[in-house]
Specification:
Number of strands of chain A: 10
Helix content of chain A: 40-55%
CATH superfamily of the largest domain in chain A: Glucose-6-phosphate isomerase like protein, domain 1
Number of helices of chain A: 19
CATH topology of the largest domain in chain A: Rossmann fold
Shape of chain A: globular
Number of domains of chain A: 2
Largest interface: A-B, 152 and 151 residues
Structural class of chain A: alpha/beta
Strand order of the largest sheet of chain A: 1-10-9-7-8
Order of helices and strands of chain A: EHHHHHEHEHEHEHEHHHEHEHEHHEHHH
Distance between the termini of chain A: 61 Å
Oligomer: homodimer
Chain lengths: 470, 470
């Protein structure tokens, strides 16, 4: 295990540190060992059957070569890359950009950046989207439209708007070379448009669900174009894959973390998991995890169609910032949470706190320490404050933030989530709960065939009483 | 009630829309009417006694005049304003900046901005803080150090670092004019430094707790300096104050919202409240609310020292973005949440979706609508999808985002929180749960008098077993 290896410390999830009745017992975890072996077997079976393609994209050298070639050309030709996409089409690129590029990447002079400026437009708010389009010089901007199905209403609306915006700015017919469409190999309107009109495109292997697509063209192309070393990222993911190839829950970091979350909910009533990195750069990773976890496990039906309760609600928090916002609730409020810390041990910038005011006791203790030392001290103090109050918590440790450690971290979360789905007995790859909202939207927008949904919306509106609106 | 009046629609919190046993009954709300009258009386009593000064800062014309004068000078002299502060010293300024300035404010050419560029440094991550200092031209940058107690370790560390950074960049002694200290009128190290060394400073009225300080110099100075119309903001807050001056819970938007949250937890077991604006610009407001709510109500002891369970865990989500991330969990997962939508009815930028591809059914329905229409349609569809599945939700309606509506919204949340504290019987103005973590941090950092805490930290570390670290 070298210093780049991501570690996982789960002492504070267990009774031996938290006190009797407050954490899990070793026997609780032993109790899922057999099931873990069975789930491991089922996952291997799915891999062989090709139903979990997200495992395999890590090894597709041909795909990677193509992505890197396209990214190289983008870096040479364009100043700005705008991702038009939402959810799984956006969060991976955002996480990688925030973690691995300079915090002010987009605002640095061109010569100080290693790749294009990257913007991710994952909402359809007219204020932000309109102002972004106005801000970017059209002639220097490439739009990467990402939708696995090719049908995402918001992304299609953005595409239509940008298409006209570019035609107006650059002259008719000149817009086409400003687009790269990333979508299914065969199906959907975006693929149809790419084929019939000759837009540049990248293909997604069948079955890669959005939230598991960070290691495909969806996440890798924007990352590589903006300067992330994606080969090292993939090597990290593969290294974690190797560590998670064992069926024994006590030895597999992804499986034990999945089991701890499941058991903390089922045995100790923790309905909330807070993911709390002590690093600004990892908030995008936390956000990405929240989608992965919520959409994969937040199910009302198990694999056989029976009612289930679904998983913990993921919440993201930031150390030290949220110590001054949410920590009061986590320490003293309802004991219904587990806190998943992510701690980074080394920061690349050493900043010393000067020894000024050595005569003042309320200032002197700071001087001579590094700023990162203070950050780490607060992380340890918060961990101890929670633990001493019997609150379950665990810590993922990264020596430094590098493409290799981030690759490990993201892939660990993917395996953890699929494994937890096995424990919850739910399908981690579908999202039936959002279908109704989509159909109702079609109804309001007047799409043909959705007249019933249009009437249903009006029915709900009519049910409302005036006296309950202030 | 004019079009600028913020409205609150709570139909979908009640049984009559959700179905029997799924929402609150009218009788549930009637059941807290008497207590609401008593809490109202207690709040009025506290206002008279001066223990809730956040109510009164709205009316202090003298303070406001001073803040506006300082802000004017800042706008004339400086290009960048950096807030050094965290929690209540940061979140108000961030919320106002995001809601009311241009989404790309900091990156626009100077002539297109109405005020200084605003940066809020509310973490001590060496990567982000170090890079920010490197990026900003020292000679054009003012640092507003904000800490009510003047003792916040992270803010003091930032202050010491910036002080030396400026001395080095500008020559010894030249740093002083680059600081504005906002702190207590009399106590604490920052006040002492301001007085003895002659730093410019603003005073906080005694007793204004950080998370209730957005309408004091803490929130108003950065807002005014960056171009926000704070007079209109305060007028909005006062207008909401007038509407919330009635003791009757059925007529008071802040009280009914506080009561609905309390009752949804106590009567229907909802341990989570999700605040979900359909507007990018309001995510800062959501974040600000999460602190206000969590730190005010996340208490383990009531006013008499008895054990209590504390309030709901606040979570922020963004429409439409989180429809593609969290909505599956909200619709289908555990029924332990209430969703608080914030809907904006009108956007200042009309963006039309072009009528391209009218022959393709999967694209044609979008054409001819506005982008904001699609956003609103998705908001209504999400509301209906949740409601039809029996999930409790309510909606705060803003006609537009203006200083006046934002003033109303923020002040409504403040009153709602103080009122809810009355129902929970907890003190909304303290945060005893974070004290232990602060003392443990002092211990690790070697502050004199905290040797016991240092030993405690080592004890927790020693309790850890190697086999529970992978």
């Amino acid at each position: 295990m070298n210093s780049e290896t991501v570690r996982f410390d789960f002492n504070n999830m267990l009774e031996h540190t938290l006190g009797r009745g407050k954490g899990l017992r070793v026997a609780d975890i032993d109790g899922v060992r057999k099931r873990a072996h069975a789930i491991h077997g089922a996952i291997q079976e799915m891999r062989r059957a090709g139903t979990t393609p997200f495992y395999n994209v890590l090894f597709e050298e041909g795909e990677l070569t193509q992505i890197l070639e396209v990214a190289d050309k983008i870096r040479q030709r364009w100043e700005n890359l705008v991702v038009l996409g939402v959810g799984g089409s956006a969060l991976g690129a955002k996480a990688l950009h925030q973690a691995l590029n300079h915090p002010l990447h987009n605002w640095l002079p061109a010569e100080e950046r290693e790749g294009v400026r990257l913007f991710v437009a994952d909402n359809i708010d007219a204020e932000t989207f309109g102002n972004l389009l106005e801000y970017l010089e059209p002639s220097r901007t490439l739009f990467n439209v990402i939708s696995r199905s090719g049908e995402t209403a918001e992304t299609l609306a953005q595409f239509l708007i940008v298409r006209e915006h570019l035609s107006r700015a650059l002259g008719p017919g000149r817009h086409k070379e400003h687009f790269l469409l990333t979508t299914d190999t065969e199906a959907g309107p975006l693929r149809r448009i790419a084929e019939t009109e000759g837009y540049a495109s990248l293909s997604l292997p069948g079955g890669v669900v959005g939230r598991y697509s960070v290691f495909s063209a969806v996440g890798l192309l924007p990352a590589a174009a903006s300067g992330v070393d994606v080969r090292s990222l993939l090597a990290g993911a593969r290294a974690m894959g190797d560590r998670c190839a064992v069926p024994e829950v006590w030895e597999n970091p992804a499986y034990i973390n999945g089991a701890l979350h499941y058991l903390s909910q089922r045995k100790r009533g923790k309905g909330i998991c807070v993911i709390m990195p002590y690093s600004d750069l990892l908030m995008g990773v936390a956000e990405w995890f929240c989608q992965l976890w919520a959409e994969s496990l937040g199910k009302g039906r198990d694999l056989r169609g029976g009612r289930v309760q679904g998983a913990q609600c993921p919440v993201r928090a930031l150390g030290i910032t949220d110590q001054h916002s949410q920590l009061q609730l986590y320490v003293d409020g309802p004991d219904d949470k587990v806190i998943d810390f992510i701690r980074v041990e080394r920061f690349s910038r050493p900043i010393a706190i000067p020894r000024s005011y050595q005569g003042s006791e309320d200032l002197a203790y700071l001087g001579g320490h590094g700023l990162s030392e203070l950050l780490l001290a607060e992380g340890h103090a918060t961990e101890a404050a929670l633990t001493s109050n019997g609150r379950m918590n665990s810590t993922i440790l990264l020596d430094r933030i590098t493409p290799h450690t981030i690759g490990q971290l993201l892939f660990m979360f993917e395996i953890q989530t699929v494994f937890a789905a096995g424990l919850y007995r739910v399908n981690p790859f579908d999202q039936p709960g959002v279908e109704k909202g989509k159909r109702l939207t079609y109804g309001i927008m007047g799409r043909r065939g959705y007249e019933k949904e249009r009437r249903e919306i009006m029915l709900w509106q009519r049910k409302k009483k005036r006296r309950f609106i202030l």
